[in-house]
Amino acid sequence: MALDRPTPNDLRAFWMPFTANRQFKQAPRMLVEADGMFYTTSDGRQVLDGTAGLWCCNAGHKRPRIVEAIQKQASEMDYAPAFQMGHPKAFELANKLVDLAPEGIDHAFFTNSGSESVETALKIAIAYHRAKGDAGRTRLIGRERGYHGVNFGGISVGGIVNNRRHFGAMLAGVDHLPHTHIPENQWTKGQPEHGAYLADDLERMVALHGADTIAAVIVEPVAGSTGVLIPPKGYLQRLREIATKHGILLIFDEVITGFGRLGSPFGAQHFDVMPDMITCAKGLTNGVIPMGAVLTTAAIHDAFMQGPEHLIELFHGYTYSGNPIASAAALATLETYREDALFERCAEIAPYWEEAVHSLKDHRHVIDIRNMGLIGAVELEPIAGAPTQRAFAAFLKAYEKGVLIRTTGDIIAMSPPLIIEKAQIDQLIGTLGEVLDSLD
Ligand code: PMP
């Protein structure tokens, strides 16, 4: 089916996010339909979705249960005020989410995105300590190469230079742990052996600032957006131990690792490390409608529930927190994951994925490969003086050849929907291999 492609003149008004706007508008890449594992482009081509949209469409596209749930909810009640009013689906969803989360996570606060989940978790962490009479604990600790969304708290605890340097002052009182991507771990399949000691830097920060100034440490169990950094064996456990020892909250940013991407509902279960809070979004609604959540322990929630009952406990929230249509989409999404046993499916197919991704080792320009669950990364040797260009050229060629990948710097990241078939893995990896060999 040939579909009309809008002319560049139609594209002027939209200032696109994280996009080279001028370049894009000269040769736009337009997606107009999506079904299962495939997008359809405006010129009628099928493109295999190797990235689950932006790490979010874990159940694949146009899932009937989700489509119907949205339509039904829109026709019953489109919106309800989020403050001092409720509606049943948000409560139902919160219960389902905490049931899915690790034992000990008991409450859910709703947001509209990963970025908002991060801001919410950071604010809850500081306010929690204050509620417990520990108002000096305001310092936040993130990690180099961490991605925690794009709002001011998130870019402050995040560790991506480009996301920070244009925007003036960051939050005060933020430190960063070293990232965990060390040369000893090159070509590792799954979790690397070396680097658990990198968590000990938290002890150094405690020694430097005093534990009684530190509210929380936030990390992604697997860092995705900065090129797929897999935690070394024992690293997350060590971080948990040190945080617990010093009364510091541990926040797992599971915006990517949540909802089955590692083969468990959350990364916390996969790595068997219990955080105090989990931030999530993306796969919560299969990417269909913006929604995020912060999941917390009872200890955190209950610290706020102490004052007079008629007073608001947490001065924070969004117009669309727990939005009815988003809640309906999320409930249908969780049901789809359950009905199709997609988290188990991810765990089952992950070994095949691992071998496929690592089969790219001998292709041109490849200097490292990493994987975990249904996540894979292929790192390319940058072109001297032109970083990012080789990987971006790979992205463009792959798209021409009918597969969607993502690039960050000179790293190609892949994270297909959890419904991917082996033949589609072969298509994705086979095409990428051809693309790599054709690059300058
Ligand atoms: N945290 C992590 C770990 C993420 O990967 C992302 C998005 N890639 C975010 C936060 C931000 O999410 P959003 O784009 O929905 O604000």
TrEMBL record:
Q: Which GO terms describe its biological process?
A: biotin biosynthetic process
Q: Provide the GO MF annotations for this entry.
A: adenosylmethionine-8-amino-7-oxononanoate transaminase activity; pyridoxal phosphate binding
Indicate the secretion signal residues.
Answer: none
Q: Which InterPro entries match?
A: Aminotrans_3, Aminotrans_3_PPA_site, PyrdxlP-dep_Trfase, PyrdxlP-dep_Trfase_major, PyrdxlP-dep_Trfase_small
Q: Name the species this protein comes from.
A: Roseinatronobacter monicus
PANTHER family referenced in this protein's UniProt entry, alphabetically = ADENOSYLMETHIONINE-8-AMINO-7-OXONONANOATE AMINOTRANSFERASE (PTHR42684), BETA-ALANINE--PYRUVATE AMINOTRANSFERASE (PTHR42684:SF1)
Q: Is Transferase one of the keywords?
A: yes
Give cofactor(s), names only: pyridoxal 5'-phosphate
- Which protein are we looking at? Beta-alanine--pyruvate transaminase
Family membership: Belongs to the class-III pyridoxal-phosphate-dependent aminotransferase family.
User: What are the protein's UniProt keywords?
Assistant: Aminotransferase, Pyridoxal phosphate, Pyruvate, Transferase
What domain of life does the UniProt record list for this protein's source? Bacteria
